[in-house]
Amino acid sequence: MGESRAYKSVPGCPNDEAARYSAADMAIGHGALDFIQYGDSDESKAVKGTLLVPLTRDEETTSSLTAIQRIDECAQGRAIWHTFMDSNQHGAALKIQHTPHNYRMYSSEPNCSTTQQAQERCAELAISEGALEYISEHSKKDVARNTAQPWSLQTFFESLPRPLEEDFGNRNAPQIQPVAWLANVHTQFPGSRFSKAYHALSNRAGHGCLLRLKHTPIDGPPTVYSYLFEPQETSAKEAKAAVALLALSLGAGNLIRAASAASQALLSPEIRNFTTRFVFSALASETRRVSGGSPVYEYNTVDDAYGCTLNLNPNLNPDLTYTVPPQYASRTDARIAVGYLAAQQGALDILRCDGKPPPSGYTPAFKFPSGGGVPVPAAPAWARKRKNNSVSGFISTILRHCNQEAGAVVLKA
Fold this sequence. Notes:
Blueprint: E1 4-6, H1 16-29, H2 32-38, E2 50-52, H3 59-62, H4 67-75, E3 79-86, E4 89-99, E5 102-112, H5 115-128, H6 131-136, H7 153-159, H8 173-176, H9 178-188, E6 194-203, E7 206-215, E8 223-232, H10 236-249, H11 252-264, H12 269-291, E9 296-302, E10 305-311, E11 321-328, H13 331-344, H14 347-352, E12 366-367, E13 376-377, H15 391-406
Parallel strand pairs: 1-2
Antiparallel strand pairs: 3-4, 4-5, 6-7, 7-8, 9-10, 10-11, 12-13
């Protein structure tokens, strides 16, 4: 019999495929490829032709561990893995649990071609978010033990830690209708830039569900809040209701409300009133005078938030195009925001001067206080001078407006 080596997977692999990948990674990390090609150069290791690689590692081999192996070794049985599929792509969820209400959840999007890749990506995300530090803060004796008991949505609701983050009044679990409740919160509080996705889980224990609530800020990476209802003897519909109920009880609704409130606060009542009363009509009038057309508003969205691009007159130099990012709760808010931005940056003055430098003594259309506060029109629109205005032309403008309103006017020196 020739030389041979045996390798073992790390404990806690969720299925046979994961165990095979783990054993293969272990073998490669301990020189299996060189052993196959050249044999064992160290005769002292080839005792009776078999070498069983120990599972303990020193600092030199730790760096070769995969992210899954690092978590499984550190967790020592406290890491619970789940995988799921969506459109033939794989995702994974990881729950590190110490007590029934002391745990951390991590998940990866379903965009991997294999379950192993999905788990590895999820493990990498977990490590980057402090999973190893969280595990090290708790001793192994804190591992929660699941006990079999009859399940219903109401008993699950009663088992949730109090106080709940969502006010359900006196409703019982079926009356709450958690999936619809969470959907209504999302609809009633727009502009949050939150998206949600339910992913069904199933195994021999029954049906479960993962809810991924993703917040995409204007700047910075997205934040994902993962909620897991582990597979149990229930239906897929009840599992989805349970995970929505869990998310609401842990504050998912409040996260959406807070993000929506921040979006609403981007525009003060004063800015809304000023832009609606003065800016829109002035921009429309001057755009029509210069180009014969109207301002063009184009909208874009991210999740439930709106942005807007305003184009006033592409033929002028500089090009009068203004854009606000998708962070507003409605198309109306995005339109107000881009109109206010155009007013701040002097769009109306550029139109009135036909894209040329303003003449001496020109009064800007709007006055924006340097220390903030409410902007105001500098003067009635028909009383402002343009570059080629003469005194007689200015008087004619006054006469035209006065005649329209009073029928006659008398000017005295």
